[in-house]
């Protein structure tokens, strides 16, 4: 599947290069790549890292709350 995706990307880039004037190549490639990445649900590394840190923080808070609830339940007995 990955080979066909890269073949599709290569074909689109080649088509963009053939059909656009030299001054518009960068703009067209950026738009093409952005469109392709959007279809692939690709996220930027920075966004991924931010979300991973938020998840780690949430997991740490959840573990602390679970521990506290357990302690409170033990104290009631």
How would you describe this protein?
- By secondary structure, the protein is mostly helical.
- It folds into 2 domains: 1-42; 44-77.
- 84% of the residues lie in helices and 0% in strands.
- It has helices at residues 2-19, 25-39, 45-76.
- α1 (2-19) packs antiparallel against α2 (25-39).
- The radius of gyration is 24 Å and the shape is rod-shaped.
- The model has no long low-confidence stretch (mean pLDDT 84).
How would the blueprint of this fold be written?
Blueprint (H helix, E strand, L loop, with lengths): L1 H18 L5 H15 L5 H32 L1
The overall average pLDDT, rounded, is 84
Given helix and strand content, the structural type is mainly alpha
Figure out the total of helices: 3
Largest sheet: none
Cα Rg: 24 Å
Unreliable sequence segments:
none
Name a few traits of the molecule:
77 residues; mainly alpha; rod-shaped
Quick summary:
By secondary structure, this protein is mainly α. The protein has 2 domains: 1-42; 44-77.
């Amino acid at each position: 599947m990955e080979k066909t995706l890269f073949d599709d990307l290569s074909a689109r880039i080649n088509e963009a290069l053939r059909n656009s004037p030299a001054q518009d190549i960068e703009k067209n490639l950026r738009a093409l790549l952005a469109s392709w990445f959007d279809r692939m649900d690709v996220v930027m590394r920075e966004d991924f890292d931010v979300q991973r840190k938020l998840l780690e923080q949430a997991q740490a808070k959840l573990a602390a709350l679970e521990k506290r609830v357990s302690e409170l339940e033990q104290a009631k007995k």
